[in-house]
Design brief:
The chain is of the alpha+beta class. It is built from 4 helices and 4 strands. The strands form 2 sheets. The chain has a two-stranded antiparallel ribbon with strand order 1-2. It has a two-stranded antiparallel sheet with strand order 3-4.
């Protein structure tokens, strides 16, 4: 099924990595996105580090599309936070060099002013 999507869906035309399928639902069950009642999987996106550490998880219902720009922002933010673990990347952080925050009790209720 994924091969048909890749061949026919224009948005996937430039995808150069292999796409897989979870025909038994084993992987979906492992990640907690399998819906036993329908036999379908919710739309789960998981960013996992090379050390097998879960960095980010997002689960959407079947009919809600995902945004690759937001996914890439989160991916880049996780890479940044691996290097600077004492910082926090606010929602509008998009690239290395953007303002980050140093989480602390003093920052509570003042994030907007700090940014």
């Amino acid at each position: 099924m994924h091969l048909a999507w890749q061949r026919e869906e224009g948005a996937l035309k430039e995808v150069k990595f292999p796409m897989g399928s979870d025909t038994t639902g084993r992987l979906a069950r492992m990640f907690g996105v399998y819906d036993e009642a329908t036999g379908l999987s919710l739309r789960g996106t998981f960013i996992i580090s090379p050390e097998a550490k879960l960095m980010n998880a997002e689960v959407n219902f079947y009919n809600l599309g995902r945004n690759i720009n937001e996914l890439m922002r989160k991916f880049k933010a996780n890479l940044h936070l691996e290097k600077y673990s004492d910082e926090g990347c606010p929602a509008k952080w998009t690239e290395e060099g953007d303002k980050t925050l140093k989480p602390s009790a003093k920052l509570v209720g003042r994030v907007h002013q700090e940014l």
